[in-house]
Structure formats: structure tokens, C-alpha cells
Amino acid sequence: MTHEAGWAHAAGALDGPPWLRQPGDVNDLVPTLWSSTAHKIDGELHVGGLALPELVANVNTPAYVLDEEDFRARARAFRDAFASYDVYYAGKAFLCTAVARWIGEEGLFLDVCSDGELTVALRAGMDPARIGYHGNNKTAMELRRAIVAGVGRIVVDSFDEIERVAAIAAETGVTARVMVRVTAGVEAHTHEYIATAHEDQKFGFSIVSGDAFEAVRRVLGATGVELRGLHSHIGSQIFDSAGFEVAARRVLGLHARIAAELGHTCPELDLGGGFGIAYTTQDDPSTPGELAAELTAIVEHECRALDLDVPRLSIEPGRAIVGPSMCTVYTVGTVKRVSLDGGATRTYVSVDGGMSDNIRTALYDADYSATLASRVSTAPAVLARIVGKHCEAGDIVVKDEFLPGDIRPGDLVAVPATGAYCRSMASNYNHALRPPVVAVKGGVATTIVRRETVEDLLATDLG
Asked: 206: number of CA atoms within 13 Å, CB side?
């Protein structure tokens, strides 16, 4: 049931979600939710060989903690499982110079979707030919820089953009390599805002309406523009391969029509990304090996049915690599037990961050987990809500989690799986300073994105 004041006030909200079970030991970690090096020693959470209380003593809270070993291992797992594919790390999930360098070192390609992300990639020494450029409204300036830099592919998203690319190619004398983003009319089983292949949204050209075929025709007719293939992305946080199957059938059908009617065989096909991760115990993601087997079988089956050669395939995992590799650590500031109607009580645990460092709970109604990270507790578990310090009732970090009943100010709590879209969507709401990103490996902490300062905050305020 819904409530006019929101889901937090709906009937049954105080019982917690049906998938959340009271733990046998509130100090235990659920390994599938954490990076591979995360474990507890005497109640203290260790990541990358470093105790979080020790790390916090040096960098303060809130802080994003990135497990470098885990990140690199996940990147390699996708690279190896999809050995016959080009694997593009989706930089929008989280990108900084160090991460772009790691991606290059692990043999992946990189997908960017803004001039800022392209700047970071080039600063990191990424080979431009291994960079793809997305975006539904790329300016002429952005396109010119990308084309002149020699990016490997530009994913065109509108008829206006095709004209811009052609004009820049003619002006600069540089061949622009493009893919055409198509919408396959697939309703992915995910949040409305991150489902991107249905008809009524801003991305791509519709296969059903015929716009996709017309876009390809225009690209093929443009001087200095090389069509590399078709691109399809059905959404994010997806666990079911059925959506990929329907999308592949429709996109490859267009592929066949292009060959038959326009005489062009597209050498490449990008299946997008959106592979889900475990934020809570209700999530059951596939391994890279399972995904590779499923997607390859789908494409090969459809190509056989259409009598097509299998094109060069690519995918774009972002969340699936960086999401589980990072956690966020906070300090508890207040604990408030609020008496509600019927004698029920809700425990609010307020931390020193919130929607400025993780907007996903408020924006997508996303679920997260958490653990006490600084000590052992013998107190019984209580159902709690972890909230931020911002002036919004919807400033919630973790809607429901079992925490020790003696949770108190000064405790550290850590939230797993915050690598994707937390730092990259962070804001200065309430003039908050965005937290640092600290990479940990082998017991050594390295700040790869420093904490913002008041001077940073005021740098653009001209008084």
C-alpha cells in the first residue's frame, strides 16, 4: 500500500521488507554484499588489509573506500569471460584519473559521456582509439574535440547529431567512426528512470517507428563518417537476460535489413550494460561467466536464424565492476527512537553524510545494507533506519537494516556497494563538502580523490 506522505509511512513499513531477515549475529557480514577483501576482526571492518577505524583516523568521515584489488579483479573477470568481446567500462558509474588508469592497465576499453569524462580519460593516458563517447545531446564543441582526439567510436543519438558529426568530419578532414544507438522497445524490469530501451524516452532511434533505419541511411550517406554498427542499451540493475534476448532479436533484425536494403554489413554490435549487483540479500546477480554464456548464446542463435555472421560484440559494465568494490563509511551523530501510533517505535540513526553523497535511495527508492564497523556488540538487533544530516525528510541512506540495539554516537557504520553512481552523482546540497575516495590495497590507503574544502566550495562564489 502507498501513502500520500511516501513509502516510509505506508502500512507495514515498520515491519521492514519481507526479504530482510533478522541476523543470527548482528556483527556478521554478508559476503556477497562486500568487496572480496572485506572482513571483520574484533568487530572492526577491514578492507584492503586496513581497519576502517584506522583509516578514518586519518581521512575522517564520510569517506568512500575503494578496494583496488577487488576492482581490478572484477575488471579482469569481465575481460576474461568476454574474451571475444570489447569490454567498455562505463565511466559514468564512477571515474577518476586513477580508475581510468586501472581500466587501461587491465586491458578494458572505456565509455565516456561528457567532455569532462573524456578529459579525465585522456589525462590518465587512455588510448583515444579505446574510448567510446555516449550522450544524447553532444555539442559541436564536444564532438569536435572527440573526433580530433581520435576516439574509437561516437554513439550518435539524434538526426541533429548526425548532421553535426558530418559537418565536423568535413571541416577537420578526420573520419568519424560512429555507432547508431537504437531503442528496441524492450521494457526492462528495473526502475522507470533507468530503463532506457522503451519507446517513450530520450535515448536513441526507434526500430519500431523506422527512425533507426533512417538514421543508418543518413550515416551511410554522409561523407567522412564511418558506420561501425548498432548500439542497444536496455537499462540498469538488470538480472534477467530475457530483455537482452528480445533486444538482440530486434536489433539483429535491423542489422539484416541494413545489409539487404542498403548493402552495408555492420561489423559491430554493442549490447550495452546494466548488469545488476547485490545491494541487499534480495539481489542475486549473475557472474561474468554466466552473463557471457547467456549473451553469446542469444546472439549466436539470432544470427543463425537470420543467416548472419556474428558481428564483433561489445558490452559496457560499469556498476558491475565498481559497485561492489566500494563502501561508504560514516560516523553516527545521533540515535533517535521515535514512538509511533500503536506503540511501535522506529530507530533513526543519523550519520554525517546523506543524500549529498548517496542520492540513489531518495531518487530511485534504492535499497542498501549496512553494518557496525568499529566494534563488537552483544546487544540484540533492532530494525533501524540510517538517515543523513540534510534538511529533507527523504534524506535516507538505508531504509531498513538490523543494527545492534546499543548503536550510539561515535560509532562507525559502513554501507556496501556504493561504488556506482554515489560519488559520481554527489552534490553540494546544503553546501556539504563531497567526501574523498580512498583506495586501499595491501594495508595501504591512497586518497585518489581528495575531500572538498571550504575553499573549493567558495571558489566559484564571486561574492
From this structure: 9
